[in-house]
């Protein structure tokens, strides 16, 4: 049987399981007490709004299908982590770190630290995009502030705070920008002159491993770590680089994602073996087969030219039916495609989507 057909059947089963579970969640408690989110624009829900950066989307048509309108989410409605939050059974979305600082919202259910254009490396995005919150800052600075606040809120009962933090899920979705906003733009960064693609990826994996271990040292025990999607198949990538050898996508970018994922998977197994009482799983956001030709055919839902050229133009009129499009803007998926990714991460039974287990099983461990 064709591999795409097999995967399509698995996806259909996954969606059915998700729908069945949703019916029983009306009054249920979430599967984990708290959910902490680290990453880039696929997960960002407003942390970039007050930054001096090209990577912010606090304006229409972003949020066109979201009840609160433009919030800083890089899509027309809910983003990847919003759907994950729903699937895990939370009644409310996880607040952004910037919102928590301003409003003092309840942090016991978790915090979203993700930042558009952020990378594993601190320099990623700095010289071509502007301000952003790198993964190191998300973990070492911002998350530690929240841990301190949680501990204070629990009457400085450190054992109780650690017990709570042990039960949370820590989602890490990052890495694309280290290629598209660093390695492959030599005008701003010299990494492609200093490293081969494989050596650069080794650097990313080592740095990511170090950052994960900081979370572990701060009581994190359940980790969901995302691989990279085919970053050479975005409308923006195709526009910037052109297609390769008859392929509808940019092969060098996709090859970078493949190398990253191939090196990330062994890291997950290594961490599972070496870090006591910790559970790690690798989630593949590109687990759903998308015909690259459809990307070229359908284009983006909104008219692009904002940000560094890949974002929606401020106040522009989007397409009438985002469901017919894979991409909302030049880089980010529509809400419907975000939901497909989330369903795969949560309930897929194939190692193509989740390895060694899906997000639901991670929550149950």
Fold and architecture overview:
The chain has 365 residues and is an alpha/beta fold. It has one domain (33-364): SGNH hydrolase (Rossmann fold), CATH 3.40.50.1110. It has 13 helices and 7 strands. It has helices at residues 3-22, 80-87, 97-103, 135-153, 158-167, 176-183, 191-194, 197-217, 235-241, 251-274, 292-298, 335-347, 359-364, and strands at residues 35-39, 169-173, 222-226, 279-283, 304-306, 311-312, 354-355. A 5-stranded mixed beta sheet has the order 1-2-3-4-7. It has a two-stranded antiparallel sheet with strand order 5-6. α1 crosses α12 (335-347) and α2 packs across α12 (335-347). The chain is globular, with a radius of gyration of 19 Å. The mean pLDDT is 92.
Identify low-pLDDT runs: none
Biggest sheet statistics: 5 strands, mixed
Number of domains: 1
> Given the structure, what is the number of helices?
13
**The CATH class:** Alpha Beta
Distance between the termini: 33 Å
Strands across the major sheet, in which order? 1-2-3-4-7
The strand count comes to 7
| CATH topology label | Rossmann fold
Structural class: alpha/beta
- Proportion in helices: 40-55%
Beta-strand content: 5-15%
SSE series: HEHHHHEHHHEHHEHEEHEH
Q: What CATH architecture would you give? A: 3-Layer(aba) Sandwich
Integer average pLDDT: 92
Q: CATH superfamily name?
A: SGNH hydrolase
Keywords: Hydrolase, Lipid degradation, Lipid metabolism, Secreted, Signal
GO molecular function: hydrolase activity, acting on ester bonds
Family: Belongs to the 'GDSL' lipolytic enzyme family.
Pfam families: Lipase_GDSL
């Amino acid at each position: 049987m064709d591999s795409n057909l097999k995967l399509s059947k698995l996806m259909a089963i996954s969606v059915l399981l998700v729908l069945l579970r949703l019916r029983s969640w009306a009054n249920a408690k979430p599967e984990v007490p708290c959910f902490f989110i680290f990453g880039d624009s696929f997960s960002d829900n407003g942390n970039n709004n007050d930054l001096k950066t090209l990577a912010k989307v606090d304006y229409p048509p972003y949020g066109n299908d979201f009840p609160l309108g433009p919030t800083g989410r890089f899509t027309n409605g809910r983003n990847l982590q919003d759907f994950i939050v729903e699937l895990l059974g939370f009644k409310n979305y996880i607040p952004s770190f910037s919102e928590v600082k301003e409003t003092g919202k309840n942090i016991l259910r978790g915090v979203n630290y993700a930042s558009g254009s952020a990378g594993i490396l601190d320099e990623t995005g700095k010289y071509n995009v502007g301000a952003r919150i790198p993964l190191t800052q998300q973990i070492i600075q911002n998350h530690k502030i929240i841990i301190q606040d949680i501990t204070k809120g629990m009457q400085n009962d450190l054992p109780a705070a650690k017990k709570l933090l042990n039960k949370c899920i820590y989602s890490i979705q990052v890495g694309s920008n280290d290629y598209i906003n660093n390695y492959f733009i030599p005008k701003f960064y010299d990494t492609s002159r200093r490293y081969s693609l494989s050596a650069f990826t080794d650097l990313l994996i080592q740095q990511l491993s170090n950052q994960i271990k900081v979370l572990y040292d701060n009581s994190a025990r359940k980790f969901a770590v995302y691989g990279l999607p085919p970053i050479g198949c975005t409308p923006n990538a195709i526009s910037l680089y052109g297609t390769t050898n008859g392929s509808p996508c940019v092969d060098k970018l996709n090859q970078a994602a493949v190398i990253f994922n191939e090196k990330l998977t062994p890291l997950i197994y290594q961490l599972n073996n070496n870090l006591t009482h910790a559970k790690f799983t690798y989630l593949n956001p590109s687990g759903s087969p998308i015909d690259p030709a459809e990307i070229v055919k359908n284009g983006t839902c909104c008219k692009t030219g904002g940000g560094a050229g890949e974002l929606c133009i401020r106040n522009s009129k989007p397409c009438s039916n985002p469901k017919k499009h894979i991409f909302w803007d030049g880089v980010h998926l529509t809400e419907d495609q975000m939901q497909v990714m989330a369903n795969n991460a949560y309930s897929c039974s194939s190692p193509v989507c989740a390895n060694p287990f899906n997000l639901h099983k991670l929550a149950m461990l």
